[in-house]
Amino acid sequence: MPLSACTILGVMTPNHANPPLGIPVVYLVDDEAVVRDSLAWLLRSRRLLSEGFAQAEAFEAWLAGRDLAGGWPDSPSCLLLDVRMPGTSGLVLFDRLVERGLTQALPVIFLTGHGDVPTAVATVKRGAFDFVEKPFSDNALVDRVEQALQVSALAILRRRQRQALARALAELTEREREVMDRVVAGLANKQMADELDISVRTVEVHRARMFEKMAVRSAVELANLLREPAA
Questions:
Q1: Is residue 168 within 8 Å of residue 222, measured between CB atoms?
Q2: Distance CA 191, CA 63 (A)
Q3: pLDDT tens digits for range 149-180
Q4: Below-70 pLDDT ranges, the chain
Q5: Got the DSSP string for 157-204?
Q6: How many CA atoms does the CB half-sphere of 37 hold within 13 Å?
Q7: CA distances to 27, 147, 185 from 154, in Å
Q8: Could you give the CA distance from residue 94 to residue 96 in angstroms, rounded to a whole number?
Q9: Phi and psi for 185 in degrees, rounded to 5?
Q10: Under a CB-based contact definition with an 8 Å cutoff, are residues 49 and 101 in contact?
Q11: Which of 23, 65, 17 is nearest to 163 (CA)?
């Protein structure tokens, strides 16, 4: 059964059900066909889907057709990326992905030759998930891929949580927002009524409607929900 955002994050997600995550995909960008084919076979042996690209330019062209602003990727994904390729190098492609804010939901694992290790270490410091030196251990590589896919899944679920929270907050009336702020601050209904110059019964009505829209049952759940999720 697919894990929900609530299961992964341990918090409630407001009011809008999140669809299950899609099937994980590993993207392969390497100019050597034999490397792409062997990686694809290796991933299939662990029941992982993959899609290969011979050039960084081809992958960027494919990305141009994705709805990046709308939340791509929407299924756990990672990128196996060769450092040295004709044309645009893996390092340049990585920098462009970082600039577009894609490397949290699309962790990058560099495939490097021995001479590229210092460069690869530097890219990890800039946010790459890892680097694997050629020739690599099949099991070790796929283990890291699976770990990267877990990181991707968590990033996607956190993004969905932030989006759902923003939608829920947008549905609140001004008065419900005022009540919500005071609930989070720990005020009792009588204190809220005095501050807002309304009756306690009216506070209770606004509070109940606010709880319903935010899909919470207590002030504690509300405070946990409003705590900024980790990026």
A1: no
A2: 53
A3: 999 999 999 988 888 899 999 999 999 999 99
A4: 1-19, 114-115, 228-231
A5: HHHHHHHHHHHHHHHS-HHHHHHHHHHHTT--HHHHHHHHTS-HHHHH
A6: 3
A7: 18, 11, 29
A8: 5
A9: -75, -10
A10: no
A11: 17
pTM: 0.78
Q: Which residues partner with 7 through β-bridges?
A: none
Look at residue 15 in the predicted model and tell me its pLDDT.
45
Q: Where are the alpha helices (DSSP H) in the chain?
A: 5-9, 33-45, 56-63, 90-99, 117-125, 138-171, 174-184, 189-196, 200-214, 219-226
Q: How many CB atoms are located within 10 Å of the residue 170 CB?
A: 8
Written as one letter, the residue type at 175 is R
Q: Which amino acid is at 112?
A: T
> What is the Cα–Cα distance from 202 to 208, expressed in whole angstroms?
10
Structure tokens at 11: 């918090």
Report the C-alpha gap between 199 and 190 in whole angstroms: 8
**pLDDT by residue (tens digit) across 207-231?**
999 999 999 999 999 999 988 654 4
Rounded distance between C-alpha atoms, residue 60 and residue 65, angstroms: 9
User: What pLDDT shows up at residue 2?
Assistant: 37
